[in-house]
């Protein structure tokens, strides 16, 4: 199979959308007022047989925007002791998102996708923070769909009967280290692997391509 045909597989699988797995760590729950502290995004691709897998990883520590609210409880939860420490190597929201968006647009073009769609665990939370940061940075070329997402919490509930990320990963037979949890990089890597596992399992069971279902029904009626 040619490289172009390989790229078309992803385009056809998600109706022209490029799935990008995202996780953020924040200083609270309010996307408008609370600081975005860390973000990771992982693009996905397909091999020549149509199996979904992670592609490019982009990870940034973020400097709190000017006037951002920072909740002590949130820092205790995510383990970021000092958001302003130079040791974090943090960059601005604008710089991080520009780099992420640039790579996403590059891979959209490779796969012939019209735009990206965010994949995240409890995706509404991550989606709101990314869009709020994008608005603050006045970035007009946000590649993500403005409201549609793939939520792995919901998909895991369907596929494995679990909605908590750690438990969903374990139910899927994946390793999950709770000591590494609540790091944007680790959580995104686990979420990406989980999403690929769900999509690939559906393919393995005969649910995709859709023609496979029709073929099975035809064979059943003949027998």
* Count, helices: 8
Encode the helix/strand succession as letters.
HEEEHHEHEHHHH
Separation of termini? 33 Å
Q: Per DSSP, what share of the residues sits in E-state strands of 2 or more residues?
A: 15-25%
| Shape, principal axes of CA atoms | globular
Helix fraction, binned, reads: 40-55%
User: Mean pLDDT across all residues, rounded?
Assistant: 92
Task: Please provide the count of β strands.
Answer: 5
How do the strands line up in the largest sheet? Answer: 3-2-1-4-5
- Looking at how many chains there are and whether they match, the oligomeric state comes to single chain
Give the low-confidence spans.
1-5, 213-223
Integer-rounded radius of gyration: 19 Å
| Largest sheet composition | 5 strands, mixed
> Structural class from helices and strands?
alpha/beta
């Amino acid at each position: 199979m040619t490289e172009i045909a390989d790229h078309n597989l992803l385009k056809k699988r998600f109706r022209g959308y490029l799935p990008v797995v995202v996780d953020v760590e924040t200083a609270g729950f309010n996307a408008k007022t609370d600081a975005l502290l860390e973000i990771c995004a992982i693009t996905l691709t397909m091999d020549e047989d149509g199996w979904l897998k992670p592609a490019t990883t982009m990870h940034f520590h973020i400097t709190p925007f000017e006037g951002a609210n920072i909740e002590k409880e949130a820092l205790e939860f995510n383990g970021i002791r000092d958001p302003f420490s130079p040791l974090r190597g943090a960059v601005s929201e604008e710089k991080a998102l520009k780099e992420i968006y640039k790579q996403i647009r590059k891979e959209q073009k490779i796969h012939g996708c019209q735009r990206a769609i965010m994949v995240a665990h409890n995706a509404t939370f991550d989606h709101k923070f990314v869009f709020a940061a994008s608005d603050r940075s006045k970035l007009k070329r946000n590649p993500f769909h403005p409201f549609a997402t793939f939520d792995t919490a919901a998909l895991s509930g369907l596929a494995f009967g679990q909605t908590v990320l750690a438990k969903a990963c374990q139910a899927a037979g994946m390793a999950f280290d709770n000591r590494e949890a609540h790091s944007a990089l680790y959580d995104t890597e686990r979420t990406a692997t989980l999403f690929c596992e769900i999509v690939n399992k559906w393919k393995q069971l005969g649910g995709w391509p859709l023609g496979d279902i029709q073929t099975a029904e035809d064979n059943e009626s003949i027998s």
